[in-house]
Write a structure and sequence with these properties.
- Helix content is about 40%, strand content about 15%.
- The chain has about 300 residues and is of the alpha/beta class.
- The chain has a ten-stranded mixed sheet, with helices on both faces.
- α4 links the parallel β4 and β5.
- The longest helix is centred in the N-terminal third of the chain and has 25 residues.
Length: about 300
């Protein structure tokens, strides 16, 4: 198993998980997922919300001190509710939780904290009202620019009794970003005591693009390379059972289908079709908008 000194790379294992909340149901799902993940990693959970007026919101807005005080009171209420959700999600864990209401824009705050965090967690979208325009644009920004892995939670936290028994699904294409994603997926599966489904989509189209290609012959060669790319991780995490899925299909289509039977999807920020400096690939972008379970985007070194 991975050394207790690190978590997925050089980030110290005691680095916190940071989750952004805005009072919406989706953000509460994000808190629940973050609390469970903090519990299994035995690290601190930081819950943050912003009561700043987003830039570019209509005409110039002038707030009185009473307005600001009321926004702060509302933000503290959101944090109190989020803390209760976190405690309920991990009732048996000795979970260290800190909360903070900030009067600064949330995106640059999260990006700055990503340099010292082990994970950022956000909801897929937020309430969209003034100070609560916190998620949605936030999830898009942090998945592109954060320095640490980012988990986006949509309609479910996948922390119920059935979901927690499902495997972790990881996309594999043997790129640097894919290697980082595989490492994190094995660690998550090991700590959650579940197996891994590792999926490699050989083609970028549905079905064989070239009729003269013999898929059985290609499959045998690809399966050998696939097994070799996972062998080291399986030895490092002997407690994690591995199911390899090799398909001749588009990665998005194949991963989306498998995600219906997973508690978490893990992908690299961009894969074999990306280019140097690319912030987020087509596969990770499409999955962020389509999977129902939580999805973690990992950027390679």
């Amino acid at each position: 198993m991975m050394s207790s000194e690190t978590r997925s790379g050089a980030t110290p294992v005691n680095a916190p998980i940071v989750v952004a909340v805005d009072g919406s149901t989706i953000s509460q799902h994000a808190v629940a997922w973050a609390a469970v993940d903090a519990a299994v990693h035995r690290c601190r959970l930081e819950i943050v919300t912003s009561f700043a007026i987003p830039f570019g919101f209509g005409p110039s807005v002038t707030l009185t001190q009473d307005d600001i005080d009321q926004l702060r009171i509302d933000a503290e209420r959101v944090l109190d509710e989020a803390t209760k959700v976190a405690r309920a999600a991990a009732p048996d864990a000795v979970l260290a939780i800190s909360t903070e209401a900030i009067d600064e824009p949330i995106i640059p705050t999260l990006l700055a904290r990503s340099e010292q965090a082990s994970m950022l967690v956000v909801g897929g979208r937020g309430l969209g009202a003034v100070r609560r325009a916190l998620l949605g644009s936030v999830s898009a920004a942090v998945t592109r620019h954060a320095k640490c892995p980012v988990t986006v939670v949509h309609t479910t936290s996948a922390t119920d009794a059935i979901s927690v028994c499902l495997p972790v699904l990881v996309g594999v294409d043997r790129t640097v970003n894919s290697t980082a994603a595989v490492e994190l997926a094995f660690e998550e599966a090991s700590r959650r005591k579940v197996g891994i489904v590792a999926l490699h989509a050989w083609s970028d189209t549905t079905g064989l693009a070239l009729p003269e290609i013999s898929w059985p012959g290609v499959k045998e060669a690809q399966d050998t390379l696939f097994a070799e790319s996972l062998a080291g991780w399986a030895e490092r995490y002997p407690d994690v059972s591995v199911c390899r899925v090799l398909v001749c299909d588009r990665p998005v289509h194949a991963l989306l289908e498998e995600s219906a039977h997973a508690q978490l999807v893990v992908v690299g920020s961009h894969g074999r079709g990306g280019f140097a400096g690319m912030l987020l690939g087509s596969t990770s972008t499409a999955l962020l908008h389509s999977v129902e379970c939580p999805i973690t985007v990992v950027r390679g070194a």
